[in-house]
Structures are given as structure tokens and as C-alpha cells.
Write a structure and sequence with these properties.
- There is one protein chain.
- This protein has 233 residues and is an alpha+beta fold.
- It has one domain.
- It is 36% helix and 23% strand.
- Strands 1, 2, 3, 4, 5, 6, 7, 8 and 9 form a nine-stranded mixed sheet that branches.
- Helix 2 runs parallel beside helix 8.
């Protein structure tokens, strides 16, 4: 009887944890998450000595920004977040409109004391881009990931880090650092895309601009990324 009660309790906790992941972001609009994403990048890049190195931003193919990743209250180690990805436009000079994503799992820097944290990922090559645009992929298993360098790092350190398909960072309680996010799973957030663009549209269609116009709500984030890492032809 005691073992049965423990099993029921375990199932209840897992179910509650799964539900909490969906309810954590209930009431938050996609537009508000876009603004939060823009604020995250502004705050991170405001201090060059502690920011993402400019040369990495200029060389990456896509970026993923997840503001306010939250730790699940009922499952140890579980975390949930909704954010956006953007990719270089054809020609490589400017940035696409934002496409919505969901992120689950991974440590995301909670170990430094925060109950929530911002996450940023740089996708460094075409192979990483294709995996990012898949229906679902897991960092470390489907794509190689490494903790990204911070600040004015040496070119040798930067070159070493660029061998990974994805460089990852987190920020909690004002501390911004490169962290390895092995185990985090990313997938499209179709509901948020429909909310932003008024129709069902895939992440690939959004970042390539083939079947959708830019969302007014995403204009600021695109402008920010162009300012931080606009390439010259």
C-alpha cells in the first residue's frame, strides 16, 4: 500500500510538472516576449567587456533568445521557456523576422541561484541551422554545443569555440556567462507564430521570408540585431 501511494505521488508530481510548464507562460503574449527578448539583448550588449563577442555575432548564422526561462516547481532539473530564433537573410547582411520556439530541459544556469534565467544561443554553421529548423532537436545529442566565450576574448579562444555548431549562454541575477546546455530540447512554437503573423506559418518560412511579411511586433528585435552584428558585403 505504501509503495502504491509513492507511485501515485510520483505520477501526480510529474503531471503537475508538465502542466506547470504550459501554465508558466499562460497570459504572456508573443509580443511581450519579443519585447523581453529585445531587452535581454540590449542589456547583455550594453557592457562590451561582459557581452557576447562582436566577432561571434557577426559570424553566426542564427540566434536563439529565450527570455525568462523558468524552473519547473515540481520536477527537479526541469525548465521551460518560450522565445525566438532569427537567421541571416539571403546575402548574409541583415537579419530575418523572428520565429517562435519552445525550449525544454537543460540547466540554463539555475545553479547560480536564479529561479529563472535568460538564454541565448548562437548557431555557427549551416549544419546547425538545419537542425534548428527541424521539428525538434536536442542540444548535445543532435547538435554539438559548447559554452560561448564572453567579452573581448582572444582570437584563439574564439576560433576554438567556433568548432561547435551552437554556442550557448545564460544570464541569471545579472550574471552572464557561457554555459553548456546539453539536454535542452528546442521545437517550433506554432501557436506564437500564428499569433504574431495571423496565420499558420513555419519557422523556415519566417526566417527565409518566403511566405510571410515581418511582424510589426518583431521589428525592434530585428533592428537591434542589425545594429549589433550587421555584416558588410
Amino acid at each position: 500500500m505504501k509503495l502504491q501511494r509513492l507511485r501515485i505521488l510520483g505520477i501526480t508530481c510529474v503531471a503537475a510538472g508538465v502542466l506547470s510548464g504550459g501554465m508558466l507562460f499562460a497570459g504572456e503574449s508573443a509580443a511581450s516576449r519579443l519585447k523581453a527578448s529585445s531587452d535581454v539583448m540590449k542589456q547583455i550588449m550594453a557592457t562590451p567587456d561582459k557581452a557576447i563577442p562582436k566577432e561571434l555575432l557577426e559570424s553566426c548564422q542564427c540566434i536563439v533568445i529565450v527570455p525568462g526561462m523558468k524552473k519547473g516547481a515540481f520536477i527537479v532539473g526541469a525548465s521551460f521557456g518560450r522565445g525566438f530564433m532569427m537567421c541571416r537573410l539571403a546575402g548574409g547582411t541583415g537579419w530575418s523576422a523572428p520565429a517562435a520556439i519552445k525550449v525544454e530541459g537543460g540547466s540554463f544556469g539555475f545553479q547560480i541561484g536564479g529561479s529563472e534565467t535568460d538564454a541565448v544561443m548562437l548557431v555557427m554553421n549551416a549544419g546547425g541551422v538545419e537542425k534548428l529548423l527541424a521539428s525538434k532537436f536536442t542540444l548535445g545529442a543532435d547538435a554539438s554545443v559548447a559554452a560561448g566565450p564572453v567579452g573581448r576574448t582572444s582570437s584563439a579562444d574564439t576560433d576554438l569555440k567556433m568548432h561547435a555548431e551552437i554556442l550557448s549562454y545564460s544570464r541569471a541575477r545579472g550574471v552572464f556567462a557561457g554555459v553548456s546546455l546539453d539536454g535542452a530540447t528546442l521545437r517550433p512554437d506554432n501557436d506564437a507564430n500564428a499569433e504574431l503573423y495571423g496565420k499558420n506559418v513555419t519557422n523556415r518560412e519566417i526566417v527565409t521570408g518566403t511566405k510571410t511579411r515581418r511582424s510589426v511586433a518583431g521589428t525592434q528585435l530585428t533592428a537591434d540585431m542589425n545594429r549589433y552584428s550587421l555584416r558588410n558585403k
